[in-house]
Recover the amino acids of this structure.
């Protein structure tokens, strides 16, 4: 399909192309990357005022600088002055998959559509049920007959959750019904295991613990005891799965004192050292292998999302002062950093712009988040929402926070996705983009915004048709002299944006580096410490109990960096951050880069204003006195750019 669609967009032919794309065929990552590489600028904007601004900004339209304007509605609804002179295209899934049931196809996301187009298509029209079965097999590799044994189902579930490409509800329901007919699964909560990756991991871990306990007790599991469903002890194919389940983190090795009584196949899933050290050893090996694979091929956003999760977990372990990390492990970690940074920078340069245009149905950039909330509301999946912006929350921070909150709130269900922060990753740009739903180019070119964040939040929802008294932005204060509770529980407000800058303060006050920051974070999570996270957790729980959908977003992460000097620029720089300097004159930025050649000049990315350039250290260095260790943000390391986006729901009692 990608090739078929691309034939509709010949290079250097049409200055302006209008596309009606109700099924969002143009938002697939590979397709967008190819269009961008061909020189097209893709514009997607539903708001008529912002659309006019974007189109005027993109002028003049030429065959050397062609524009694609997409809409999910009819082309006739677009402004007439654009419509009359443009080349016009109508796209739909039915054009490319005529033999599949269209209503079922519409449930697939863009990444799944790209998988579908690579498969052999049916030659005869398929019914709704046969289309469901076809998609389960071809897109999700889920054939109920081939999943009839526990080893095959566990292997499929493990791969499925690693792919982070969830089954649409209709397909999931169909698969669950088929699997429940298999006698082995009558007592399994199949629907939960497919829907919730954490539930799957907990299930496998519990079953593995039972296996080890039975083996250590000297009892062979000849008959399946109550609550024991995965027969590791007498299924060689399940035993063969153990190393990959450990490697991918589905099984955390069980710590034991003596392994002589355990069979050889169980060795990958046990350890005699600190469980965290065993996991760190696995992660260091995984990261090294993944970097080798990334260097040898073209990796997409999904690959980087998975990699970032592993990298964050490993980084969190490396910053824990109570772990007996070996010198060779520290050396390997530093080697991985040296290999990672240039690879990630090159990938960003090639893909950041095209991903910035892919707003719905799956958000990619932080400025897509308000649009995503409005999209969920329009679908009827969200009625009231709280967006908690945790300033400077990194994926490594969330690796520490999430298990603590999960343990304290057993009824919470936490789903974590990842986003790209706005580059440069400074608060005045990336947080404002997150709150306003705008690109920095739409900030009227000013860093010191005339419109405050609270007003930007109101304006976004007013553009969506909501009364301004239904939305509100508030910074959170933890001074006991300030009682915010009455205001925070205002029943008139349907769309809250709450700002918590605790983690930003922890990062900037961490004078001893990442270990200092992580230690402070753990103190903040400790109820015994006076300034802790309990009041924030209680606030979120109150909103969950009052039917709000709760989301947590980060504007940027942070990284440990070492100072290598500070440019003397006079009034040339608009901001003087430790990881980013911003200039309105590109020549001024180039002159500073001459003095600091180990830097990256970032501009013309389709998101920043045309006249804005950012200069950032290429490595884990900072514009700070030589040798000074800082925890900061602004640059393009994976820790600063790939950030968590979390949804918390609460199970009904």
């Amino acid at each position: 399909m990608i090739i078929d669609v691309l034939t509709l967009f010949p290079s250097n032919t049409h200055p302006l192309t209008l596309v009606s794309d109700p099924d969002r065929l143009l938002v697939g990552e590979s397709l967008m990357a190819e269009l961008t590489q061909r020189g097209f600028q893709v514009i997607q904007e539903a708001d008529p005022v912002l659309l006019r601004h974007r189109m005027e900004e993109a002028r003049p339209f030429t065959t050397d600088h062609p524009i694609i304007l997409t809409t999910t509605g009819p082309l006739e609804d677009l402004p007439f002055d654009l419509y009359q002179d443009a080349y016009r295209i109508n796209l739909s899934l039915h054009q490319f998959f005529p033999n599949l049931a269209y209503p079922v196809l519409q449930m697939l996301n863009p990444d799944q559509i790209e998988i579908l187009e690579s498969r052999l298509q049916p030659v005869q029209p398929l019914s709704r049920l046969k289309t469901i079965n076809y998609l389960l097999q071809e897109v999700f590799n889920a054939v109920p007959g081939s999943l009839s044994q526990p080893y095959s189902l566990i292997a499929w579930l493990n791969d499925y959750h690693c792919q982070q490409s969830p089954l649409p509800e209709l397909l999931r329901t169909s698969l669950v019904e088929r699997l429940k007919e298999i006698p082995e699964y009558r007592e399994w909560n199949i629907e939960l295991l497919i829907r919730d990756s954490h539930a799957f991991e907990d299930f496998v871990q519990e079953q593995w613990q039972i296996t080890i306990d039975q083996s250590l007790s000297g009892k062979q599991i000849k008959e399946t005891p109550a609550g024991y469903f995965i027969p590791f002890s007498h299924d060689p194919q399940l035993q063969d799965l153990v190393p990959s389940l450990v490697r991918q983190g589905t099984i955390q090795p069980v710590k034991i004192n003596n392994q002589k009584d355990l069979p050889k196949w169980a060795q990958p899933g046990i350890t005699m050292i600190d469980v965290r050290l065993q996991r760190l050893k696995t992660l260091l090996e995984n990261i090294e292998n993944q970097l080798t694979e990334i260097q040898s091929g073209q990796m997409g956003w999904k690959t980087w999302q998975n990699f970032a999760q592993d990298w964050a977990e490993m980084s969190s372990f490396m910053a824990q002062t109570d772990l007996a990390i070996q010198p060779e492990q520290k050396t390997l970690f530093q080697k991985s950093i040296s290999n990672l940074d240039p690879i990630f920078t090159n990938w960003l340069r090639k893909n950041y712009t095209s991903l910035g245009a892919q707003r719905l149905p799956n958000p990619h950039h932080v400025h897509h988040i308000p649009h995503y909330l409005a999209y969920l509301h329009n679908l009827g999946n969200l009625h009231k929402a709280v967006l908690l912006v945790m300033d400077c929350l990194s994926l490594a921070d969330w690796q520490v926070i999430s298990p603590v909150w999960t343990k304290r709130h057993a009824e919470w269900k936490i789903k974590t996705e990842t986003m790209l922060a706005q580059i440069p990753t400074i608060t005045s740009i990336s947080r404002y983009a997150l709150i306003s739903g705008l690109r920095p180019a739409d900030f009227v070119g000013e860093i010191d915004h005339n419109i405050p964040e609270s007003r930007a939040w109101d304006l976004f929802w007013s553009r969506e048709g909501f009364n301004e008294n239904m939305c509100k932005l508030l910074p959170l204060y933890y001074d006991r002299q300030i009682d915010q509770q009455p205001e925070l529980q205002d029943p008139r407000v349907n769309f809250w944006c709450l700002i918590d800058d605790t983690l930003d303060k922890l990062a900037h006050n961490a004078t001893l580096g990442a270990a200092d920051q992580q230690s402070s974070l753990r103190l903040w999570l400790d109820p015994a410490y006076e300034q802790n996270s309990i009041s924030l957790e209680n606030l979120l729980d109150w909103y969950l109990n009052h039917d709000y959908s709760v989301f947590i977003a980060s504007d940027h992460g942070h990284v440990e960096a070492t100072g290598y000097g500070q440019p003397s620029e006079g009034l040339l720089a608009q901001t003087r951050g430790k990881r980013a300097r911003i200039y309105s004159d590109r020549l001024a930025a180039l002159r500073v880069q001459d003095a600091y050649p180990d830097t990256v000049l970032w501009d013309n990315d389709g998101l920043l204003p045309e006249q804005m350039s950012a200069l950032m250290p290429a490595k884990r260095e900072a514009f700070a006195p030589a040798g000074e260790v800082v925890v900061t943000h602004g640059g393009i390391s994976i820790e600063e750019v790939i950030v968590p986006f979390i949804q918390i729901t609460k199970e009904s009692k």
Notes: Residues 2-91 form one domain. Residues 440 and 608 are 5 Å apart (CA to CA). The mean pLDDT is 89.
